[in-house]
Specification:
Layout (H helix, E strand, L loop, with lengths): L19 H9 L4 E5 L11 H9 L6 E5 L15 H4 L6 E6 L12 E5 L2 H10 L7 H12 L1 H24 L11 E5 L4 H10 L5 E2 L8 E5 L3 H14 L1
Parallel strand pairs: 1-2, 2-3
Antiparallel strand pairs: 3-4, 5-7, 6-7
Helix pairs in contact: 1-2
Bound molecules: pyridoxal-5'-phosphate.
Amino acid sequence: TLMGATVKRVVVNDDLTINVDALVEAVRERPRMLLFSNPMNPVGSWLSGGDLSRVLDAVSDETLIVIDEAYAEYAEGDDYTSSLPYLSRRDRPWIVLRTFSKAFGLAGLRIGFGIVGDPELRALLDRVRTPFNANAMAQAAALAALADDEHLARVVALAMAERARVETFLKSKGLGVAPSRGNFLFFNCRQDASVFVEGLLRQGVIVKPWKQQGFDTYVRVSIGSASENDHFMAVLSELL
Ligand SMILES: Cc1ncc(COP(=O)(O)O)c(C=O)c1O
């Protein structure tokens, strides 16, 4: 938007899964850039390996592919796959984005990375980034985090188990919840989300209300520790 681009959005299906046909159709219009997150924020839905290759196969050489995999660590499961194996076979420019803000818990350090298929594209990015854009402490922490597989596995296992527990709870309250492979759940609170989140906030729970047309009864809640989730569920029960 800053660069004056026209943004064409692809809306999700009614069941909040990604509309793969619409995505393929949009890509066939040969945009300058295709940008999406997988798993997708704010809903948590994801593209299976098959659907991902369908979309990527439809991309023409004129389109730069940018896939944000901020939540990849949480997405483990039969039908999720990183785009890297697909993209590494392409000789046209692509970027995969990863962050240390989510599963690695380093959001405050502002560090992430991009995997770039094309050296020329990498040089272009180098030209526009600010000097020293990732500070030395953040880089040291990121390297330590990457080396600590055990911690990552523990954090992800906890988040996945808690996600399932909170999802079951929300469903038991009769609330529609989108299937999620992120560290959050997107659910229909069946009332004005902005008012609903005020009630949660009064009890110390900060969640994000959705304001887009058609989604203004939806709320996204991040998965926290077991006790934080217990607190959220207790407050939500009260509010309902
Ligand atoms: C899709 C997506 N990408 C990236 C991020 C994280 O961004 P950053 O690395 O700037 O903290 C988020 C966090 O909200 C996100 O939802």
